[in-house]
Amino acid sequence: MTVPAPLLPALAERTTRYGRLRDRVLLDPDWGRMVRWFAPLVVTLLAAVLRLVNVGHPHQLAFDETYYVKDAWSLWTLGYEGTWGENANEAFVTLQQLPLEATGSFVVHPPLGKWLIALGMSIGGPDNSVGWRLATALLGTGMVLLTYLIARRLSGSVVVATVAGTLLAIDGLAIVMSRIALLDTPLTFFILLGALFVLIDRERTIPLLERRDPDAPDPFWGPVLWRRPWLVAAGLALGAACAVKWSGLYALAAFGLYVVVTDALARRRAGVVLWPTAAAFRQGPVSFVLMVFPALAVYLASWTGWFVTEGGYARRSDPNPFVALWNYHQSVLGFHVGLSKGHPYASPAWEWPLLLRPTAVWVGTDPAPCGVDHCIATISSIPNPLIWYAGVAASAYLVYRLVRGWIAREPTDPALGLPLVGLAATYVPWLMIPERTIFQFYTVAMLPFLVLCLALTLRVAAGRRADPLHRRQSGERTVMIFLAFVVVISAFYYPVWTGMSVPYDFWLVHNWLPGWV
């Protein structure tokens, strides 16, 4: 497009001002340092406000809190999950005599997530609904900070990281699951923590593997690296995820494979002759030891209360406590494999990308007045629809770019791999068990990786520094308009994410699909 001559001076002046502002942000060390500290602080504070304000509402056990809150208090009281009598839910609300019996109860999830919930309950007592949810609210806030830190390392951009953190901070699924005492938010937190540690290990290790040394004694294999503290840290974090829910095993396996593959590619770039064999059969076993043994140690440590007491379920099934624990785990595995009981909010994994059946976590039976005759109060795990659908599309786009790079044998952006690995680990395994009763809210573990894919795709849409000015400006405007709509939709949905009493007709307009009711 040819710019008319009379407009050239104005365009040149505008370009100069834009360049000066950009250079100030990019080159001024004090300004850059302030932004690097200020951006994550603001994003994390926003997440904390949206998760902690009025987190005690509703003052009753909502959805599966009926299991995890009671189990948490039992752990705090007995050291293991005991058996609850009748009217236990009401007793938690009114602090009547809690009908807790010392007989061990069969529970199907490891104890760590419930111990974390118990820490919050220890502050306010068993009848304090803020205490029930304090741990998940804080971990949900931490998820936002971890997403920011991962995006910052993947992209090298404070702007991209801020967008990623903000998207997760204001998303409805992340908000709802942070304001209720379920296990999925602690699970997601530890998976993200493990992903961050894997990323740091990659940054520290790959330069060592890619270093070309003509005098190396073994150019066929390359080095075997034992000193990888961040890989050990990743194993500890992912072991904690397994100690919250067994689905953390998928993340441990997926990121372990990611480490082996990236090790192999680094050796290939360094000119190692037998690079696949070296990565798989020499470095691979070392990486396994560094990741899996710490993960196993954390997992076993989470069962300490069960080990040091005698009343836990199956605790006396064998004189050897480790054999007894194995017997317990066989029973748990049988439960999970055979779980196919119908549920009105069940949603098979193939439905998740389409967002067909979100979960109604709580519906108020006697909502507060809202200015009209017919009011309703709900907590629904509907994500921000724009973030969700755009995130699904962005992940598909990144898969396309990755596959296209492999086919064309072009250098691939390393930022593409880790979010897709995390997404595969938290979604693909559920596709293999279509008969099992599962729920849409499990996707909270997928959500941070979807957000990372979306933030990286928005960076592409905004344009690169080398692009013409008009291309960058149009791309940036498009991204800003998209983000503005995201904020508006989050504000629109916030009442139905937090259980506010609203007019019934207002609630109805939030149900865009029949399955959302």
Radius of gyration: 25 Å
Order of helices and strands: HHHEHEHHHHHHHHHHEEHHHHEH
How would the global form be characterised?
A: globular
Oligomerization: single chain
Span between termini? 50 Å
Q: Count of helices?
A: 19
Q: What is the residue-mean pLDDT, rounded to a whole number?
A: 88
The level of helicity is: 55-70%
Strand content: under 5%
Largest sheet: 3 strands, antiparallel
User: Low-confidence stretches at least 5 residues in length (pLDDT < 50)?
Assistant: none
- The neighbouring-strand order within the major sheet is 3-4-5
Helix-strand category: mainly alpha
- Secondary structure: number of strands: 5
Q: Tags for this entry?
A:
517 residues, mainly alpha
